[in-house]
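ugh ok fine here u go
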Amino acid sequence: MRLSLAWACPDGRDLYESRHPHGRHRLAAGQRPPEMPDAAPLRLHDPRSPVGESCCVQRKRRSGRGLQEEIILERHPELLFVYNPLFDQTNTSQSLLIALRHLKGEDVLVLNGDVVFDPRIIDAMNGCQHSSMAVVKSPVGEEEVKFRLDGKGRVAAVSKTLSEAPGEAIGINLIRAQDVDLLLLGLERCGPMDYFERGIEVAIANGLALSAVDVTDYPCVEIDCIDDLNRAKAIVDAWASWPAHAR
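structure:
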């Protein structure tokens, strides 16, 4: 399975796809919250590796691509690097569209890179036969991406602007190989500044059956501010105490 990771970069809207010990990741799109530190490294951490192996990329401003492409490539020469040439004029729908064109014929796991989560969430989603979206049932505010279900328990809508939503779509979506073309068509119909969730909504309208996987019981945090960052660090620190067979 290829893993596509959408990362909120501090330098603007960049698109990268790199390979972590257990899969492939796309680094893309977004703006750093003003209170987040500029010099903090991006660390891709896998708690299930024997030594908690991680890939650390120092985020520094530079011309063109923001993140230091050569550092990533040197550390992981097996990666596939995909670049959005209009990173400063487009949003995540366009970056994901570019990445998905390289990933046809396989299941694709799309991850928001500003989300730190219990890896058992991936196991729960992979246990679903159909394309699926990880959701948390909780009160939501203006900034959360919200979801709504149909009568069959499938995702009917996903957007920041939904009202009376039962909870949050946390930014982890598993698209099965047979549905990748539907999502591609949805993304192609997005405007340049649309988030990729708009492409998912268009795909749903065109027949994508997207199951909702309730992961409320698993630790998960989207990093939007310093308090979120501290919560994420606590989650990662807790992984160190896990027995090896549980990683």
